[in-house]
Design a protein that fits this description.
Elements: H1 12-17, E1 36-42, E2 51-57, E3 66-72, H2 79-86, H3 88-95, E4 98-103, H4 143-158, E5 161-171, H5 173-184, E6 191-195, H6 200-203, H7 209-215, E7 224-229, H8 237-256, E8 269-273, H9 288-293, E9 310-316, E10 322-329, E11 336-337, E12 346-347, H10 353-362, E13 364-365, E14 368-369
Parallel strand pairs: 3-4, 3-5, 5-6, 6-7, 7-10, 11-12
Antiparallel strand pairs: 1-2, 2-4, 8-9, 9-10, 13-14
């Protein structure tokens, strides 16, 4: 079992790398989805923080209040390109929930709105990244953190949403912003999924205390699932380790006010899938090739593999219930595993990050873990 330790910092090249990946642009087409795909605009108190967002509602939903998943795209993506690739809408059709997609904008390509003036051009991000590294966007009530929370609340008001089952997931810059939203609005989100991202405070909350401070009076144990590829050259694998370490430390502080190991930094269980114990010895299953290469992208598709070999580490709270889960995908680059190739930055090989996130979400509500999370 591996212990996860925080990083003292992330190199500047890595931070910039989250903003320079370029992908093909997909044209929007509502016919790509079976349900309703609608565009909306959120007017923030500060015009610079206003953003468009999209909502997907399946053609059929169960009666009563349903869950909501908020998904934050990565750099150089639109909400539509992300939605097409990550398959959240497909899962919503079968599982019965609503999905919202806030969208960042590039001020270099978008004209100012009718009431926003030229100052609008100074908002957003030139790489369409969420501004997770700028202090004015990562505190409660400020900037993009407030905007994403405002969009979430608006969707909740416009639809029959179960307030106990509102979740947030994001990849890359959206993944770091997912940690930010967990720290700043734990009263809204029951659990978050950090995909190819890192922890709060621009990956610098080594002891977890900054996230506790950001939570303030809303502090509560926050369930977090982290998924990261070992061959990620844009957001290197230690960034995923940083997210796990930060959330373990934060939850350790929250449960009894002390950093005393009540939430252990070593996993209660660690399970390897698609590989065996001989991996480090250079022998064993086909999947071990990806494990031995470690930080080299694995050509799993060419090897005939249905999914990347992976390790699932599960960390428990003091009561023995699942609190943090860490999925290490051996050989995955900076892309969304189990994705639809029609989208951008996707990899068709599993395990799919969407079903992994959803399965984790289902085991957690804002009021506490479900029986499944405590079943061992």
């Amino acid at each position: 079992m591996r212990a996860v330790r925080g990083l003292t910092g992330i190199v500047v090249a890595t931070l910039l790398g989250l903003a320079v990946v370029v992908g093909a642009t997909a044209a929007a087409d509502d016919s790509d989805f079976d349900g309703s795909w609608t565009e909306h605009h959120y007017d923030a108190e500060v015009a610079l923080d206003s953003r468009d967002y999209f909502v997907y509602v399946p053609a059929e939903l169960p009666e009563g209040d349903v869950p909501l998943v908020v998904y934050l795209h990565g750099c150089n993506q639109t909400a539509y390109e992300a939605a097409l690739g990550v398959r959240w809408n497909e899962l919503a059709d079968t599982e019965g929930f609503i999905v919202a997609y806030p969208q960042q904008f590039d001020p270099n390509t978008m004209a100012p709105g009718p009431d926003q003036g030229e100052a609008y051009l100074f908002g957003g991000n030139g790489g369409q990244c969420w501004n997770w590294f700028r202090p004015e966007h990562i505190e409660r009530g400020l900037g993009e953190a407030a905007t994403i929370a405002g969009i979430t609340r608006t969707v909740m008001a416009d639809h029959a949403i179960d307030e106990d089952r509102v979740y947030l997931a994001g990849i890359s810059a959206g993944g770091v912003m997912a940690s930010t939203m967990g720290a700043t609005y734990p009263d809204i989100y029951a659990a978050v999924s950090v995909l190819a991202g890192c922890g709060y405070l621009a990956c610098a909350d080594v002891d977890g205390s900054a996230a506790v401070a950001a939570m303030g009076e809303h502090a509560r144990p926050l369930p977090v699932v982290v998924v990261h590829g070992t061959a990620d050259t844009v957001a290197p694998f230690p960034m995923g380790m940083d997210a796990v370490a930060q959330w373990l430390a934060t939850n350790d502080l929250i449960d009894d006010g002390q950093a005393n190991g009540s939430v252990a930094s070593t996993p209660a269980t660690s399970r390897d899938v698609g590989m065996d114990a001989s991996a480090l010895g250079g022998l064993g299953t086909l999947g071990d090739v990806c494990v031995r290469s470690w930080n080299v992208p694995c050509l799993g598709g060419l090897l005939g593999m249905p999914e990347y070999p992976h390790t699932i580490d599960t960390y428990l709270d003091a009561a023995g219930c699942e609190l943090v889960q860490f999925w290490t995908l051996h050989g995955l680059q900076h892309s969304y595993s189990g994705g639809d190739p029609r989208g951008t930055f996707t990899d068709p090989l599993g395990p799919g990050e969407t079903p992994v996130s959803w399965a984790f979400f289902q085991r957690h509500t804002r009021s506490g873990p479900t029986e499944a999370a405590c079943a061992g």
